[in-house]
Amino acid sequence: MIPNESLEIFRTPHWLIRHSAEAAIPGYVVLYSTHALASLRELPKAASEELGPLLQCTVKAVGDVVKPERVYVCLFNETGSAVHFHVFPRMSWMRKFSPGADDPGNLIDGGVVFSAARRAKSDPAAIREAEPQILEAAAAIRKLVTEAKLFHSRSRL
């Protein structure tokens, strides 16, 4: 099991960025609200003001570190947990999960790819095997997000 403190990337009073430990996918991070809110519409103004720049910086860092074909940002909140965003690197190997993947003219179904790739890489043995790459990606993303100094006077790790 990967230690939680190794997965934490960045924290503000309103947000926590943490590498996912639920799938063996380096660069897959989650941006969690520190407020116990079930809906984005309930977000305090200060948290809303941080969200855009923090999401943009996180997407850029994930892209720079793992070089995916795309970076998905997903908000579902189906579990009843606090608002959180999945920042998910869609790698070329994940194309096989999209319906019609053999047809070069067919658009990729991002939702299907996201769900199938997570499921395919959720085995605890696969996560243990990918731990060095996950920790390396978390450290590199942490460095880039921290260096961005988006909220340097209020941020901490």
Q: Care to describe what's here?
A:
This protein has 157 residues and is an alpha+beta fold. It is 39% helix and 17% strand. It contains four helices and five strands, in the order H-E-E-E-H-E-E-H-H. The protein has a five-stranded antiparallel sheet with strand order 1-2-3-5-4, sandwiched between helices. A hairpin with a 3-residue loop joins strand 1 and strand 2. Helix 2 crosses helix 4. The chain is globular and about 45 Å long. The relative contact order is 0.22. The C terminus is likely disordered.
Which descriptors apply to this entry?
157 residues; alpha+beta; 5-stranded antiparallel beta sheet; 39% helix; globular; disordered C terminus
**Within the largest sheet, what's the order of strands?**
1-2-3-5-4
Measured by DSSP, the beta-strand proportion falls in 15-25%
Order of helices and strands: HEEEHEEHH
Q: Approximately how much helix is present in the residues?
A: 25-40%
| Chain-averaged pLDDT | 89
Count of helical regions: 4
Radius of gyration: 16 Å
Q: Assembly state here?
A: single chain
Q: Tell me the overall shape.
A: globular
DSSP strand count: 5
Calculate the terminal CA-CA distance, rounded to whole Å: 21 Å
